[in-house]
Amino acid sequence: MKPQGWEGWDEYAPFYDWENARTLGRRDVPFWRRVALDADGPVLELGCGTGRVARPLVRAGVRLVGIDRSAAMLARLRAAMQRSRRSAKGPKAARLQLVRGDIRDLPFAASTFSVVLAPYGILQSLVGDRDLAAALGSVARVLAPGGAFAVDLVPDVARWREYHNQIRLRGRTGRGTHLTLVESVRQNRARRLTTFAERYILRRKGGTTEHRFDLTFRTLSMRQMKARLERAGLRVDRVLGDYRGRPWDLRAEVWIILARRW
User: Fold this and answer.
1) What is the pLDDT of residue 241?
2) Most buried among 125, 159, 246, 254, using CB within 10 Å?
3) pTM over 0.90
């Protein structure tokens, strides 16, 4: 059975924040905040998930719409926003609208947004050409003329070596719970797909539970990605090699593309 990029994310939701706090953290958030604060109108985030990016943007004053296919991810973001309402420092809930939907068919009127964000490789969860073309076409439709589209790609997934049942992370999650991530990686070189088979093992005083799911990502070359953006009616303005704005090259840790709707 062919992997589908949307599979696994509901199961990943309880562990997403724990893992990313130990890997990516928030080092990309200042970049997304700068892009979003330049918007002259509402901002759309594709794959907003649990709000790792959305919450600090809203806290900074951005009017944001977040869309995600995973009900479990959105439920965790809604719960976090409810908790923040009790804090004077929490982001204003009125500035954030959450929508459950498919980024290949965005449920918004034409020319609604002045900026669309695609953080942390979200477009790489689209594992087929038709899926990517549909998503980019949908983005071009909902962007206002001259609106900006910012894309972050993770280029190294295609270079991950294959391994089986390796312990990648372990630590406490609070309340007497210990969590271990055991991971396997397999590559489909022909389709440039990388699948991470995840096993999260939760140990509590009352016993042990295990959660298994797969996450699959696709890697495209910069030339391919730029061509697909242009085909969708999105003009590439700049490419960057990190979140501080350094020039891009093939060895860059992240690939950032800034484009505009024609």
Assistant:
1) 96
2) 125
3) yes
